[in-house]
């Protein structure tokens, strides 16, 4: 416990707190209790401190008493000074008040003087205004008198003087009397406007009903005096600010009454004839000569009529409004239709352009304006002619396509290729070439490597085989084709569907599968070696020249397009001939090379519409694109041979100017055909997959109603492929038909194989049922029976259907024992068609768990190297 705190310490702590506001630093003091007995002591301490403070204050007051007396004396003096200042301020205020009164009197007097001066000035200005008003009244009377005597210009001068006088009135311009004078002036002006308007209509008579206009130079008055002339009238209208409006109105009237009837061609293909007699010009009757020359002559006669019967002050402003209208109507109704569609009409059109320039020169001689449109049109006549050729070409395409798409014909495609012995095409014709066979047998690669390679090829998804199977890559050289390219091509994926569309367009792409074309060798077959062996160095493979022929169906559209392209090229030569090279159209010759690309683009844009009514629309599009590509290639080659001997300038030769464009167009056309073919193939594949999807993976294929669905799926798939063959057979070439059908059959087999391999368990009755489905699908092989050159039938199913052997092995597996399956894998070629996991999964699904199954699986794994 802390030591007790004395009353003295508590008192000092309390005193310090009151005097200085401090808190005790000692913890014992600050936390000590204050008993009641300590209160007297605390009070005594506080009273003592108070008394000490009072005493201290008294002492300080006594010491500072003398200073306080001095402060009080100074305060009394300051108070006296303030009082004197207040009295002085009052005096100043009184003096200021008396000054204001005097200033107000002075200001009042000045205001009165200023008012008197302003009154005097106003009276003087009023006198001047009255005099001006009198002058204005005199001017108006003079103007009225001049108007009465038909002195229009004099009256206008007086009115103009009056208007100037009105402006000089200043503030009096808005007074009542001035308003009356202005009203009178306005009435005089209105009377003059009415007078000159009536005179204008009297000098320029427009009879809309009779389509006649009469132009006079002067109006004769009834009193025999000379009337107003048109020159005076023009000046009067100009001063009145009405001339431009009257000229615009006259140009409209002249256009509607004279120009439009003559230059517009009615529904009956006739125009009104112009007649000029005296001061009259009239559009009446029908023109007998509908040539451009006659029209230009009538325009020139009309211009001559206006220039001789109107002063230049009227004719020139009128031409600014009228000539552009004439030019527009002339171009739209006469010059544009006069553009020839063939080069035969160019000389006559050149003469027409000369006549137009002659009309422009005539306008220039008259000092007219607005004919620049005609000059510009002549300068651009080559562009106009070229645009007309393009429009005509497009119109012709739109006209002939719907008709020509219905005209079908069979065309033959002939290719000559140089093939080596290693090519697949020669494989079928050199079965007895022992040397070649020896070369094949001397391969150093072991059999296992070949088997692995075949397995790798067959491992490609069978859905991926496609139309590119019968075409080798475009960039491969003809001389470098090897026999192993056949399975490579057959394993191409579906994503290359469009690439096959270029098969006929590329010389390398028919080598593997054209079994039907006639093949002619340019060299005799070599004699076979007696021993069946030959070193490669002793007898290298010889190249052979082979001619391939096939027919396919196209419409008349490709040949029609080629005819139009040939016509455009012919026109280029015609325009550069000596007869036409100097014409205004000759510079457009190079632009004609745009027409082929335009036609081909038009074909691509509208083909889907034109072919849509044909059941084999996409295949026809593909064939037509192939035909177009072939003919364009032939055209390029032909022009490359002919151009060196032609007289065309180097920059206009088709092999120089047109070839790069056509090569791009050929790529576009081939791509378009590929896409059409790809769409058709994908559509058929989708239908086939949908048919097989109805079987629901062939699960429960022996139980109703699933069995009926499975049977129906197989039957519909077979029927669909057969129907497609019937549709495509009249259109596609034989090899293309087989390739396309092979792709569809491959799709069906791939779907069927995948469904069977996905079945986890296959009962014996299901196995037999699935085997029956395999037999049914095998009937599709009849689609691929062909005859060779010797008339012997050959089954080409395996060539066009890459997964055919795999499907056949699947069929055998479904009907085989474990020993048979093991034998097919170890001693047969099953491992070339199926992966080991596929075979093992099928064994597990077909056979129950047993020692025999485990042993068979182990043997298969051992042979596979797993």
UniProtKB/TrEMBL annotation:
Q: Which UniProt keywords apply?
A: Coiled coil
**Pfam families for this protein:** ZW10_C2
Annotated Polar residues bias: 512-523
Q: Which residue ranges does the record annotate as region Disordered?
A: 1-37, 421-440, 445-546
User: Which ranges are annotated Acidic residues under compositional bias?
Assistant: 461-478, 492-509
Q: Boundaries of each ZW10 C-terminal helical domain copy?
A: 713-860
| GO annotation, biological process | endoplasmic reticulum to Golgi vesicle-mediated transport; mitotic spindle assembly checkpoint signaling
In what ranges is there compositional bias, type Basic and acidic residues?
479-488, 536-546
A GO-annotated cellular component:
cytoplasm
- Coiled coil location: 43-95
Q: Which InterPro entries match?
A: Zw10/DSL1_C_sf, ZW10_C_2
List the biased-composition ranges (Low complexity).
Answer: 24-37
Q: What is the protein's given name?
A: ZW10 C-terminal helical domain-containing protein
